[in-house]
Batch of 4 targets.
Target 1
Amino acid sequence: MKKENRKGFISVYVLLILLALGLTISFIYRENENNHQNTVDLYNKKIAMFEAESLVNMIVEENRAGSEKTYNDLLKNFKSLAKLEIHHDKTNNKVKEAKGAKILSVRADYKGTVAYAIMIYKMDENNKIKLIYKKVY
């Protein structure tokens, strides 16, 4: 082989190595961006879930303490990071334990991430909440 051909061969190899290195760095950078976004999304979901569950727990505890506070009073006093909505209804459940039960649903929206806390309960003879089911998602 001539010396000139060897130099051309070496420069092609160097260019291929630089191309592979550039692609690798670009891939690693994009993966890091994706991981960061996933971390932010998980954090936002965790905050929204915490806010929804906290409000449901406050409602239960206020009722058990004999407080006459309304849901609106609790929302005003609750320093929330998320936008909270409370929905209240009766169940149509045919399960014996849930007959005549009520549903309380709290929706928390934190930076576009939504979480729900659902509680199914009955009122006992002392007009206190008796939990049947609770789920936060």
Target 2
Amino acid sequence: MSGAAEWFDQGVKAAAAAQKSRSAARAQRALQQAIDAFDQVLRLDSGHVAALTQRGLAQAQLGQHDAALDSFVAASAKQPDDVQPLVGAARSLLQLGRADDALKTFERALALRPDELDAQAGRAEVLMAKGDFGRA
């Protein structure tokens, strides 16, 4: 494989295989293969927002929340109007125990797209955990 598109497709296929796997070990290997493929895309095209976002999703599934956050932040910096990296970043922030930052990030996503269900659910989750049921 030589082109970014081929590597991206490889990463998407590996991530999908991880989702379908019944074996945790196979799923982890497939997610790492996906990350490796997305890394190759980014070596060829450092501005590939979808590769950054997909890498972040795979990293988050492996529990690599610091790395996932970095991927999502990089994607969001390159395409600030895309809510998916913002939601991913907010989810990673939650996993890292940074609920206040997660709430702000979910709210940024909702400012861009008020109907984004993942952002709505995440915001409600944070507010309920804080006991702010009126705003949830």
Target 3
Amino acid sequence: MPRLSSWQLPATAPETLDADALVARLATVPRLREHHLWETLRILPSLAEAREDIGFRRAFRMLMERDDLDGACRALIAAACPARRLDRLQALDGVWIARVVLQEDAPRRAVAVHGDRLAAVMAALVALDRATPSKH
């Protein structure tokens, strides 16, 4: 198999991972890591256009090379289609509560709670791509 640079994404994930599995994985990690962001970019249907956009991939790779996970999280939210926004991010009793809102005619939202700020944000983003979104 040819070796891919960090900005070239494989057409399919090496394992069958979907949004439900990624949300479950994010819930168990103590802290968000770089590979979780690459997985998010690789599997979310809402990021399909970003995966195909060479300019986005280069900018995302640069954020990752600088270890700017916060900037990378913001870039993923901004690149999602239809548009999403981080509506709430609050620390309460030692955990972070993140709410990401899908901005369309019938808005939806997803809420995630995690001990790590960025993991909460990414879990909420991923939850919006789940096959059967949960109401919070």
Target 4
Amino acid sequence: MKASNKSFLLMLAIYVGLVLFEWYLDDYYRQCDDLLGRILMVVHHAIVIFHLLCPFLFGLHWFHLIVSLFVIGGWYVYGHCILTKIHNTRCNIEDTTKHVNLVSHLTSSLGIYSLYHPLYESYCWFLVCYDLYKIRFP
């Protein structure tokens, strides 16, 4: 097997492992009785991990830039993540409940949950800048 294939498989294993770990942290998943709601929650975890780590694991800077702009744009247009709204509705989870992800879990564990949104949004804008830099200077 080529070294590049081994590297890709390692990055894919890291990605899948982090998605599974984030899913494991989500207590709301176990409370959800709706199949589509559960599927959307898992997809949401996969999108979050992709969004947070894709440029470092896989590159794909153009694709990641587009995903990032859709994610950030959705927050500004709707005032929240549309996927969170949909799966919360399907799973009968309170409307104001935020999606459980690695960042929210970490900030909560450290007692700095009030910094979750500013840290997360700042990191997302950093990723946009990073993608633009890597696109311009490959």
